[in-house]
Design brief:
- It is a single chain.
- The protein is built from 16 helices and 14 strands.
- It has an eight-stranded parallel barrel, surrounded by six helices.
- Helix 5 packs parallel to helix 6, helix 7 packs parallel to helix 8 and helix 11 packs across helix 12.
- The chain is elongated.
- It binds 3-hydroxy-3-carboxy-adipic acid and copper (II) ion.
- The site of 3-hydroxy-3-carboxy-adipic acid (HCA) has 12 residues, from strand 4, strand 5 and strand 6.
- Copper (II) ion binds next to loops.
């Protein structure tokens, strides 16, 4: 049965320009425990005093998940894992020729001795041990078997087959896992697949189907370079495609959004599962199908994740989507009026990058001649921001540009220093955005104006 190790706090913090506070790490660990992952790799205590404190505090939370500390194969690092209260240490040491010759200048015999010595040392400290063969996928297979069996004989109960450079393909992972299973002493096999060719989750799934036990993931797929499999994608893919039903899918969105904020790495709209567009339909053909039966264009019900489907309106839209949108606001129109509304939407859509629900309501008002007393759901706002006196405006602008929903930023004269134009889904999202802006150092005060109607001056 599949197991998941989440390493957002170790591999994820190796993402360029990402650093979590201890409080953020604790919150991430709590949310991971709500999801139900079997193991949380909380960090390498040798990296910095703060990383060590985070591992210690997470180990003290009494979570259901096993807490793993990462460490180089060295006599100073391994005891720190024990001192932090981790259940297990993951000792990594490379096995590929290029790493041994270019990086470490070690012979294969020396490597086997180093692995044996450090695994046995960790066991003598009372720790469970995983041995990771770093760059395993570029390692001579016979030597890989020797290195893993040396670790198992010395007391490791898990080995990790690391595709450190993301150079594997699903069928090759399956072959290697099958071969490892037949040659290794009894142990669990972890898969740590990097995503350099976009194949990380496919590789991990092929390895599990071939008999490996555990997939390493991070929230939002963070990690060195292009990261490793995304937690939500992994759990949902195994749930829907392989029938693994033991994880709490309802906790995934909150966790992803939290890590998005804490890491500053925004999720692409077209990202599977957690991306904004994952359950959003656009073309008239698709919208019509989904409105009749969602199974026509949805691989699974978004409610599984606590999400809702959405239909966007623009020049691709057909009658059923427009009628459904107007019905949502309680607006009834005749078939003839609907026809005219749709054709006007198409004309306006040709001139605009994006249409808002407010535009559709305005067109409906013009066509029906009735004043429609409704407030559109997708909203835009002007957020006026006053800065502390000593702050560089450009430094704050740089941070604001990373916030989802902020579409344009202007430095302005007057009582405020910056004016930001934002487009968001609803009032809750606007509130979140304003809260985030207020946490930017140097921001003294904000004032937000909701935009009621937009006039496009260029058309
Ligand atoms: C690295 C180490 C590692 C280790 C994986 C693991 C890798 O940063 O190179 O211990 O499971 O990708 O090999 O992340
Ligand atoms: Cu890695």
């Amino acid at each position: 049965m599949l197991e998941i190790l989440d390493t957002t706090l170790r591999e994820g913090e190796q993402t360029p320009y990402v650093s979590f506070t201890i409080e953020e790490k604790i919150e991430i660990a709590r949310l991971l425990d709500e999801v139900g992952v079997e193991m949380i790799e909380a960090g390498d205590p040798s990296v910095s005093p703060g990383v060590a404190r985070a591992v210690e505090q997470i180990a003290a939370l009494g979570l259901r998940a096993e807490i793993v500390a990462h460490s180089l194969a060295c006599r100073t690092g391994i005891p720190r894992a024990r001192d932090c209260g981790a259940d297990r240490v993951a000792i990594f040491y490379p096995t590929s020729q290029i790493h041994l010759e270019a990086k470490l200048h070690k012979t294969p015999e020396e490597v086997l001795d180093i692995i044996r010595e450090h695994v046995a040392y960790a066991r003598s400290l009372g720790l469970k041990v995983r041995y990771t063969a770093e760059d395993a996928t570029r390692t001579d297979f016979e030597f890989l078997v020797q290195a893993c069996n040396a670790a198992i004989e010395a007391g490791a109960d898990r080995i990790c087959f690391a595709d450190t450079l993301g150079i594997m393909q699903p069928h090759r992972v399956a072959e290697k896992v099958t071969a490892l299973r037949s040659r290794l002493l009894p142990c669990k096999i972890d898969l740590h697949c990097h995503n350099d060719h976009g194949l990380a989750l496919a590789n991990a799934m092929a390895g599990i189907c071939a008999g490996a036990d555990c997939v390493h993931v991070t929230v939002n797929g963070l990690g060195e370079r292009c990261g490793i499999p995304d937690l939500a994608e992994t759990i949902v893919a195994f749930h829907n495609l392989e029938g693994v039903q033991k994880y709490n899918l309802r906790a995934l969105m909150e966790l992803s959004a939290y890590v998005e904020r804490a890491s500053g790495i925004l999720t692409a709209p077209n990202k599977p599962i957690t991306g904004q567009n994952a359950f959003t339909h656009k073309s008239g053909v698709h919208a019509n199908g989904v409105l009749k039966d969602p199974r026509t264009y949805e691989p699974f019900d978004p409610a599984l994740l606590g999400r809702e489907r959405k239909i966007v309106i623009d020049k691709y839209t057909g009658r059923s989507a427009v009628a459904a949108l107007l019905a949502k606001y309680g607006v009834q129109v005749s078939p003839a009026e609907l026809e005219v509304i749709v054709s006007r939407i198409k004309v306006l859509g040709d001139t605009r990058k994006r249409l808002f629900e407010a535009d559709v309501i305005e067109i409906a008002e013009q066509v029906t001649g009735r004043e429609l007393d409704v407030i559109p759901h997708d909203i835009s706002a002007l957020i006026m921001i006053e800065l502390e006196a000593h702050v560089y405006t450009s430094a704050v602008v740089r941070q604001l540009r990373a916030f989802k929903g902020v579409q344009n930023i202007y430095e302005v004269t007057g009582d405020y220093d910056i004016s930001a134009f934002a487009g968001v889904e609803d009032v809750a999202a606007l509130n979140n955005l304003i809260e985030e802006i207020r946490t930017v150092p140097g921001v003294k005060r904000t004032e937000t104006r909701l935009i009621l109607k937009k006039y496009n001056c260029s058309s």
